[in-house]
Amino acid sequence: MRGKIALSGPRLLLYKLRTGGIVWLGERLREEIELPRTSLGQSLFRAVRGVARVVQGRPGRGAVGGGSSDVLYAFYDLGVAPITFDFLWFLVGAELERQRRGSVSIHAVIVPGRRAGLRKENPELEKSLDPPARWARVHAILTPACALLPSLSGVTVASSRAQAEQLLTVAGDAVFPARYEPGLPCYTGPHEPLRAAREEGARVAALRATVADLRAIDDWLAARQCDRRLVTITLRSYNYAPARNSNIPAWTAFARSLDPDRFSVVFVPDTAQCIGGLPGELRDFTICAEAAMVVGLRMALYQRAYLNLGVNTGPMGLCWLNDQTRYITFKILTDAIPNTTAEYMEFLGFEPGKLLPFATPGQQWVWAEDEFEIIKDAFSAMVMRLEGSADQAEQDRASRCGGASLIASATSAG
After folding, report:
1. What is the CA radius of gyration of the chain?
2. CB neighbour class for 301 (10 Å; exposed up to 12, middle 13-18, buried from 19)
3. Which of 23, 46, 83, 357 is an S-S bond match for 137, by CB 3.0 to 4.6 Å?
4. Residue 266 forms beta bridges with which residues?
5. What is the SS3 assignment for 201?
6. Rounded CA gap, 365 and 76, in Å?
7. Of 333, 239, 332, 343, nearest to 3 (Cα)?
8. Can you tell me the distance from the alpha carbon of 166 to that of 156, in angstroms, rounded to the nearest whole number?
């Protein structure tokens, strides 16, 4: 296990100085001048700009634009935000803000960063995914994911930070994140949705598959005779942070252990596997490569499934943030990877060992490895829970209808 890395404050500064030296310090100071990210830097930026506006007789942002409060403008700034499925947390955060404000809809704005339209990443990620490959994810992940938020009315991929500034003027004060502006970018992760769920009982999981994608997946499943209870298995098999990858032998053994008369198993491979070639272990199984390549189809498949299984990987966020799905996610922590340690998960707002605060009875995080026995036991327990809930619901319905015969007929038909 590698040593703990400081996440913020003086400890992080000392760590960066030790590992990057004076070269890092000079580059970081230049970045802070161009794009302030610290609270001190942003406060100084606002103070200097305020003085300049007074001297020049220009109004502040709240006095211009006059944007309609019916539309909340949500800015996702690639100067500080990742091009990953973490974008889903941004969408549900914007939805919470829309509801608080009473706005009718959301207009998402994706703002290019200053480094080839992106932010600076760690060297390992830069080596695995160069800027063109990361920018391609804007159109493969970010913009398609916007369609999963029912209240979203429009998406703009800004051509420049100047265009984002123009849209900010149109928005007036109807902006998410609060006080966002291109000169002072910020990234909102899962903190606020998690807090709102715990403290306010907020309904966070607002993402949904579209009607068109659900129809397409229904056709796909019918063509492959997947007419039993659908169980999906999502794999991670990626050359970046490989310690987080799925235990494929365990997953294939689990899939073979399921009764084919009761369950239809569909594997969703890693997108990289669809391009580089599927492993031989998967040749005997039904594979939905279409879902691995198209975000909307992936969400539709998850929403149609009886139960979705997989490790902690970006696409599983589609299940976490859709309360019409059922899932079990394994291998939440990987201590060998800095952004999946218990310390980092707490930093993001998660509570190690616990479920998501807005999880439904059919949604579970298992804080253990994806080994065969662990997967099998968790699956069996979930099936018992789901079937017990269904049986109880049927009994309640029959009781209200005044006849126990309905229970028997429903059981024999199932």
Report:
1. 24
2. buried
3. 83
4. 232, 286
5. coil
6. 28
7. 343
8. 12
- Decide: pTM greater than 0.70: yes
| Residues 32/371, Cβ–Cβ less than 8 Å | no
Using one digit for the tens of pLDDT, what is the confidence trace for 331-364? 999 999 998 999 999 999 999 999 999 999 999 9
What would the two tokens of residue 85 be?
Answer: 């499925």
- Give the CA angle between residues 305, 379, 247 to the nearest 5°: 90
211: which 2 tokens? 């009607």
Burial grade of 235 (CB within 10 A; 0-12, 13-18, 19 or more)? buried
Measure CA 407 to chain center: 40
The secondary structure of 215-281 as a DSSP string is: HHHHHHHHHTT--SEEEEEE----SSSGGGS--HHHHHHHHHHS-TTTEEEEEE--HHHHHH---GG
- What is the Cα–Cα distance from 344 to 196, expressed in whole angstroms? 20
pLDDT digits (tens, 9 = 90+) for 9-40: 555 556 555 555 676 566 656 665 666 666 66
Residues facing residue 329 across a β-bridge? 310, 365
